[in-house]
Amino acid sequence: MSRAYDVIVIGAGSVGVPAAWAMARSSLKVLVLDRLASPCQGSNKTAIGGLRATHSEPSKIRVCLRSLEIASTWKATYGDDIEWSPGGYSFVAYDEREAGILRGLIETQQASGLDIDWHDAEHLLETVPALNPDGLIGGTFSPGDGHCSPLLLGHAMYEQARSGGAEFRFRESITGIEVDGGRVCAVVTDEGRYETPVILNAAGAWADEIGKLVGLDHPIRPDSHEAGITEPVAPFLGPMVVDIRPSERAANCYFFQLATGQIVFALTPQPLVPGFDCRETSGFLPVVAKRMIQLIPRLAGLRVRRTWRGLYPMSPDGAPLVGWSSEIEGYLMAIGMCGHGFMIGPGLGELLDRAVRDDLRSEDRMVLDELSPHRRFEGEAALK
Ligand SMILES: Cc1cc2nc3c(=O)[nH]c(=O)nc-3n(C[C@H](O)[C@H](O)[C@H](O)COP(=O)(O)OP(=O)(O)OC[C@H]3O[C@@H](n4cnc5c(N)ncnc54)[C@H](O)[C@@H]3O)c2cc1C
């Protein structure tokens, strides 16, 4: 089989599906290929659904502000319930170190259009009354952030992409990418060959595998993170609570309450666990439970229903790599989403569509500049 497309997207995940949705809406002829059986079954389905524009880099703030607009208006626009919940985010500080980091970011965040403020302990306890007041210095609150279901949003975007004309082929592995005269011309899978002048690498944790097919090295290395969900309880927690205090076994911890009452939680293990292992561990629950109960004592006694483990596609500095290859014409990358691919996906999908149609806005150029795959990897994102 040999068919021609304007764009071939590799990976039907947090980034590939919204990109296909945006491109189909612009009448591009799109094919999305994924080796799994249905959309959003890679890292996307392991995300807990947090969607925030509270980042340290202007590029991510801008893209995620657009993601928030898309998610918060999805039901009104398309009719699907994606369980959008606008509870906001609160990054809490119990130490001067974290208070300094969080306060230091506010000026940049506000200048990038984010609605965020620092609240002292008394004020923060009005917004998050369940927080442990002992030692609380204060925290940020960004009311426009929220959460929704990664599977429901992914599926709704997939349906919209299909009704806009995008084709999806599942259970197909990419075995080759043909390059002629320095530019991409076709993708080869175990099922067929598809011609295209543009390939979008949206292969998440497996992005480097795709890069190797065109002789490029992408510095994307996955590490694995665990999450869980409790039984439902009466609503008591508005925002997502994020604690960036490093402890012996965890670099941070974050959780929120679903509209249906369950608490969904995750942490970043310390030390990190590099690799592709997605088997749950027995070590996760004792560590995360201790941290959560320290922050919100009334969580003690809540029963956990399920835990799972998935991959963060990490880049060297904790920010994504987005843009055209300078070596191979027609090869576009949207990789290294780290712990934020679900929240970046919708806004980034639209930007990628504009990139393919050569219709970039000045703000897009700022984003592409900051997230350039050809940048020098120095430092680390403050809110990784
Ligand atoms: C516990 C946990 C909690 C998280 N919570 C959040 C959160 O609250 N908010 C948030 O924004 N992010 C969160 N994340 C991170 C988020 O899940 C990822 O950043 C995001 O899913 C990455 O998106 P992606 O499109 O790059 O990759 P994926 O969603 O994994 O999509 C990549 C797709 O490419 C396909 N693919 C790869 N190689 C090939 C190939 N050779 N041939 C065919 N198909 C291929 C894969 O099968 C996969 O479907 C969390 C992650 C974990 C593990």
Structural summary, described in words:
- The model has no long low-confidence stretch (mean pLDDT about 95).
- With about 375 residues, the chain is of the alpha/beta class.
- The chain binds flavin-adenine dinucleotide.
Instruction: State the shape.
Output: globular
Q: Compute the number of strand runs.
A: 20
Main β sheet profile? 8 strands, mixed
Rg over CA atoms, rounded to whole Å, is 20 Å
Keywords:
binds flavin-adenine dinucleotide; 20 strands; 8-stranded mixed sheet; alpha/beta
Brief account:
The chain has 384 residues and is of the alpha/beta class. It has helices at 16-25, 58-78, 96-111, 121-127, 150-163, 207-213, 284-295, 341-356, 362-370; strands at residues 2-4, 7-10, 30-33, 50-51, 89-93, 117-120, 138-142, 146-147, 167-169, 174-180, 183-189, 193-195, 199-201, 221-232, 240-243, 250-257, 262-269, 304-314, 321-324, 331-335.
Which SSEs are present, and which pair or pack?
Elements: E1 2-4, E2 7-10, H1 16-25, E3 30-33, E4 50-51, H2 58-78, E5 89-93, H3 96-111, E6 117-120, H4 121-127, E7 138-142, E8 146-147, H5 150-163, E9 167-169, E10 174-180, E11 183-189, E12 193-195, E13 199-201, H6 207-213, E14 221-232, E15 240-243, E16 250-257, E17 262-269, H7 284-295, E18 304-314, E19 321-324, E20 331-335, H8 341-356, H9 362-370
Parallel strand pairs: 1-12, 2-3, 2-13, 3-9, 5-15, 13-20
Antiparallel strand pairs: 4-8, 5-7, 6-7, 10-11, 11-12, 14-17, 14-18, 15-16, 16-17, 19-20
Flavin-adenine dinucleotide (FAD) binds at residues 10-16, 33-36, 41-44, 46-50, 173-174, 202-206, 209-210, 225-227, 266, 310-313, 337-343.
